[in-house]
């Protein structure tokens, strides 16, 4: 026996997560952590990275947090390229990815029918689909290479700049009917033009034998779908959607189910054809469903020092995580700020010697030990972990580091947020450090995928 959750459940769960992120007063933050590289001794792999132990280590080394700014469904980026072959949409393939394209104008199209040569083999694409060719309509249109497409949407500058990467591109259904973004206004029109229950194409599971001029009959609870079969060497090698004669194609309407039957005067047998039906409310109604998204991208920017709320002077991090429900340090209250430091700080004086990042330091009695995160002027930011222990320093005591540097503790400042509060929902460990500077911005994007 085999089992699987459906794309509908994946979309439902991710949509709940997205709605929670978008809700006012719900605190999701991206945290950056750890300033030392991971080694084999850390035991971090695909099975342990999300463990409670590693979550605790993430908290020990948490540097700073920034509120999660944006979230969007995404799908793998497929850029239309001349000479490539694209698949037609198939409702039998939940993880299909090569059935849509983004063109050079940031317009996105669904491949309704693959271009075919006379022998039935796939035709490499050479005529880029464009919205102007489709009359910016949701109806199927045909390019010179024989491919049939539907215009889905065009990326807005905001969506493209925030979520588009070489690996992923944003996809969404527009629900804000008051939007003033031109691309979203256009997409609403395409959504409203969706035709539910179209038979987009006929898949050939078996071409059969002895066919000469087959007739295709479709029976189901919809109406109007008409297709024609092409035969080569007595086999059905292609099935084309018939033209309506008025600039459209006869996909029909209202089909929840359909049976495809084949009759032939020459006694052809064995062909197995399958109706590929659009999503229930239509192909352009909800691009998230039609393009089979099962990923949610979340994004935020760490901008320099965030107005002195974050340390960013030649500092490094090796981990990124998502935290929900952070509390203020020492106070039973939710943290609701935009960004914050999660490290403890000593104000030190009489500083002598070198104070290098990640070096160990202790009080004079060596009863309390910590690791240097960064010395910023006379502010010594530090962290503690299982290796150092978790003792507390005292105002007025001397401290000494492993390189022989010395200083006196003038004041102690607690962090803004409690690193041990909230729930850690995601951790990503990096092979190479990200170095932060006060004049740069880190655009952090995390993709959550279900299944």
Could you walk me through the main structural features you see in this protein, from its secondary elements to its overall organization?
Helices cover 10% and strands 40% of the residues. It is mainly β. Among the domains are: 78-164 and 172-196 and 283-290, no CATH class; 199-277; 344-414, no CATH class. The strands form nine sheets. The chain has a six-stranded antiparallel β-barrel with strand order 21-24-23-22-25-26. A five-stranded antiparallel β-sheet has the order 20-2-1-18-28. The longest helix has 16 residues, at 7-22. The chain is elongated, with a radius of gyration of 29 Å. The mean pLDDT is 94.
Separation of the first and last Cα atoms: 18 Å
Return residue spans where pLDDT drops below 50 for at least 5 consecutive residues. none
From the alpha carbons, calculate the radius of gyration and give it in angstroms. Answer: 29 Å
Judged by helices, strands and strand pairing, the structural class is mainly beta
Features:
five-stranded antiparallel β-sheet; about 450 residues; 5 helices; about 10% helix; mainly beta; elongated; about 40% strand; six-stranded antiparallel β-barrel
